[in-house]
Amino acid sequence: MLIQYCPEVTVAGKAETLEEAAGVIRTLRPQLVFLDIEIAPDSAFDLLDSLKPVDFEVIFVTAHDHYAIKGFKYNALDYILKPVEIDDLRQAVSKAAKRIREQDIGQRLNDLLPQLRAEKTLGKIALREKDGLTLYAFEEILYCSAEGAYTRFGFQKGGSLLVSGSLKEFESQLPADIFCRIHDSHLVNLNHIRKYHNGKGGYVEMTDGKVLEVSVRKKAEFLARLK
User: Fold this and answer.
1) Would you give the end-to-end CA distance of the chain in angstroms?
2) What radius of gyration, in Å, describes the C-alpha atoms of the chain?
3) What is 123-226's CATH superfamily?
4) What would the CATH number be for the domain defined by 2-114?
5) 131: closest CA among 151, 109, 149?
6) pTM of the model as a whole
7) CA distance 100 to 102
8) What does the pLDDT look like over 75-127, one tens digit per residue?
């Protein structure tokens, strides 16, 4: 059925027992594995336990639907019941292909990030967006603000971008002679501060009108930088 209806799939190997399957998977390192649940006298779950961490997609093909919940606990991509329907198989393979493509793109971006982060010497930072990586000149960035596990970047030309990663992580990629931490949640470009408003900690007004709080703890260091 795979050969006839799923031409994007190359059948690299097959196995009849758990021991044989473990050997084939370790040798061939497939991207996708179709598994029956009951492989006497054991089960596919025993196989997956022996191969942890599982670095391939799994589609269960079985006549036993009562295993479905347990199957998804093992992060199975899909669950096809026997007798296999062609549409079910095609949909499962399509889902697998999409996830594998996304993972490949993600890995390539991760491999590229160290190189792009070297752009710091050229005055740029690489930020991951939905469709890839975009390089931004330091002078384009007005501020960076922490939002949980994400950081929001505000830009000179307007608008902002929410990027996965902590403020501390991005602070290390930005030049300390231009950017100053004014609060646990805010990092600002000193060249884009329009005005500092005094107070217990006070606050800064950026050139785009954005107002950001200065913490009491960071105030003295910040004011020294302004001078």
Assistant:
1) 73
2) 26
3) LytTr DNA-binding domain (2.40.50.1020)
4) 3.40.50.2300
5) 109
6) 0.49
7) 5
8) 678 888 888 999 999 999 998 888 877 766 555 555 555 555 545 546 788 88
